């Protein structure tokens, strides 16, 4: 969850349209980066593999938490439209950028050491932009009592993978463990592709 969007005000108003730091407007609207809009949800029926509705915070994401978010334009992306879309670079996100994912077995010893040093740094650096929930939206009293915690950058990725694949919470102590949304559904490949792009 974007750190800028976890106050009780944000959660109760169900809006995550933070100010972009460079121009001070929501979603960088004054710079043409994006605008705050209602989220669009699919109206396709749920498949029979998920027999519940309205019980899981991840259903129709992110509508349980937010109904309005930044919708970025052009080559901009991010929760505040403050970063470049994958494959682009530069102050206005207009420069093409080609990244080559190298085989770790082809790295030299200094390159491997540098890679491991960055992993260690990620494990000891609190994420400046994101926090994780420590309770469900219902446990947060519909947003009036936010329940979020800091997390280091490395564990943020561990947590994202956990959050998308954890069991469905049905209320109280009941869970439903018959589906894993990250690994037992058509979203397996595209979800992990995005996960790797974010990691890189």
From TrEMBL:
Record bears the keyword Lipoprotein: no
Domain Tyrosinase copper-binding, chain residue ranges per copy: 183-200
Which membrane topology describes this protein? Single-pass type I membrane protein
Q: Does the keyword 4Fe-4S apply?
A: no
Matching Pfam families, A to Z?
Tyrosinase
Q: Which PANTHER family match?
A: TYROSINASE, TYROSINASE FAMILY MEMBER
Q: By what name is this protein known?
A: Tyrosinase
> Which organism is this entry from?
Dugong dugon
Taxon lineage: Eukaryota, Metazoa, Chordata, Craniata, Vertebrata
Q: Which gene encodes it?
A: TYR
């Amino acid at each position: 969850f974007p750190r800028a969007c976890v106050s009780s005000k944000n959660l109760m108003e169900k809006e995550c349209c933070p100010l972009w730091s460079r121009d001070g407007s929501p979603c960088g609207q004054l710079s043409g980066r994006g605008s705050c809009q209602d989220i669009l949800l699919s109206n396709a029926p749920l498949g029979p593999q998920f027999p519940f509705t309205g019980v899981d915070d991840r259903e129709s994401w992110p509508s349980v938490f937010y109904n309005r978010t930044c919708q970025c334009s052009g080559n901009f992306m991010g929760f505040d439209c403050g970063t470049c879309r994958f494959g682009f670079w530069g102050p206005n996100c207009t420069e093409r950028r080609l990244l080559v994912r190298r085989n770790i077995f082809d790295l030299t010893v200094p390159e491997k050491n540098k890679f491991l040093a960055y992993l260690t740094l990620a494990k000891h650096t609190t994420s400046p932009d994101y926090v994780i929930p420590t309770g469900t939206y219902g446990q947060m009293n519909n947003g009036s009592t936010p329940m979020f915690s800091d997390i280091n950058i490395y564990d943020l990725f561990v947590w994202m993978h956990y959050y998308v694949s954890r069991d469905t919470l049905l209320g109280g102590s009941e869970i439903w463990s018959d589906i894993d949304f990250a690994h037992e559904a058509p979203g397996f490949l595209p979800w992990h592709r995005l996960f790797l792009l974010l990691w890189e």
